[in-house]
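Batch 3, record 17
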Amino acid sequence: MMLRRPFFWIIALVIAAFALAPLVGNDVQLRESLLLAAIYITLASNLNLMLGYAGYVNFGNIVFFGLGGYICVYLMGVPGWPLMAAIAAAGIAVSLLALLFGLGILRLRGAYFALATIGVNEAVQAFVANFEPWGGSSGLYLSTEMFKPLGGPMQALWAIYFLLVAVMGLSLYLSYGIKMSKFGLGLLAIGQNEDAASVLGVPTPLYKALAYSASAFLPALAGGLYFFKSAFIQPADAFDLTFSLEAIVIIMLGGQGTIVGPAIGAYFYEELRGWLLTSDTFSHFQLVIAGALLLVIVQFVPGGLMGWAYGRWPGLRRVLE
Amino acid sequence: MFGIIASIVDGVLVGSVYGLAAMGLTLIWGVMDVVNLTHGSMIVAGMFGLYFLTDALGLPPYATLPPVLVGGFLVGILLYWVGVHRMIGRPPLMSLLSTFSVNLVLIGLGTAVWGTNLFNVEVSLPGVSLGRYTFPGTHILAAVLTAVIALCLYLFLYRTRMGKAIRAVAGNRTAAELVGIPTTRVLSFAFGLGVALAGVSGMLIATLFPFTLLSGDAYQLKSFVVTVLGGLGNPTGALLGGIALGLVEGLVTPFVPVSWTLVIEFALFVVVLIVRPGGVFTFRRASTR
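Prediction for the assembled complex:
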């Protein structure tokens, strides 16, 4: 059924483009910038499950990424697990944690929930910075031996890149699959009017907890891969507020609740960021500009780029989700 | 044993200042249903207000309270028009994102200009000794000032025309508008007042502990904990919640390393949210929006 929809193939094209573009001419610089874009898209699409579909802002979305990274680096470094097993374990562990936590906290509505997610962020950071097995505030290292099974550091970097592109592709398909399903309709109904949804038989606390848990899995994988790549993890990098904020900016820029939105938003944001970092005047003001951009979008174009495009060309809704 | 009691008393003194910060947060929430995520940076602004006014102008530390209060009020009104006014009555998601982004701009500007070094303002006051323990004078004076400000706020909200208007708008905005209360002016005034309270509490906290530009996050979280303890939108509850949080801090400090307090406070926060989302110190029917 999905295979007959054009949008399914549009996603496949995007993934293929990501996988093939850096291979042409062995372009390592392009690969690094696409790698970052893939992480942005992964974080943004998964956050979109909460923010765009269910209308719940999760300020602690970076916790999934950071915890995934920690679990993966720890499992590889201390008991010496292979990469794939460590990453899978990280994804499952973080998802289960999110489900447990979600079942408790998601009975809360709106602002209460947002406050709780800010708290999760602060508390997990404080916990990890004090947790001795994970190296406390100085973090964990991996030896370069870990790259051996993948054929040395050079090959490992390519392997990590393709794995991250796969994670990004899965994120897009997950967003799409959920949006097409009854579960997704339930989430969208919660986003529109939670009381009405609940009266009409949507099991709201359960759906919210499932969405929260689902939105944790792929970011945890991405975190595992990302910190395996740098072979080093410390609390300040793992729970970098900037990533968390950027995911929100990307969603709002591209259009909340859409699947193309986070991808387009990630592309434009990446361009903007590249320009800011090379500019002499603005390189220190990245947060300021991202914040100002978010403020303008929230106040004046809450639908983002896709919302604007849908308004301009209504037929677009049938092709791009 | 006496050590624990002393630690608890000291915790309560400091906790009352957290209560003051939370009063600012909860006032804004109660009046306009907006969670002010610039709260943390406004606390830090108060801290830096103390630092610059004592360091550059040579004011005595406690003389900076009036300028911080007035400055906070004006900044608050400005913030209302920049980030909040268009969000009134829209879904909570939008006002959260809006104040969140204003906060990012402020923190980003601050770190770009001043960096994240540790600042400290030396305030020397004689302490009060009881047996082997000395309660620092700064802690006592901070608690006393908090009590005075809380009393002033109470008198303002219940005895003045503007205060009554604020409570009317908090109760029912449409009805308030129908009886001729200029709601927009009241909303911006209330936001200014909330920010002024955050700034003053930051100034008082800075007389107790050293601080950095990023300290706001931790104190903002404390304010959230205090607010849910006291019930969102309930200033009296916020003061009690602050004292309760201080009590908990005082109780755990002798046994647990300081860096764990944030985790413990957060656990408390989650438990309270789940068990009593209306707040612990709400005796009448609480609104659990």
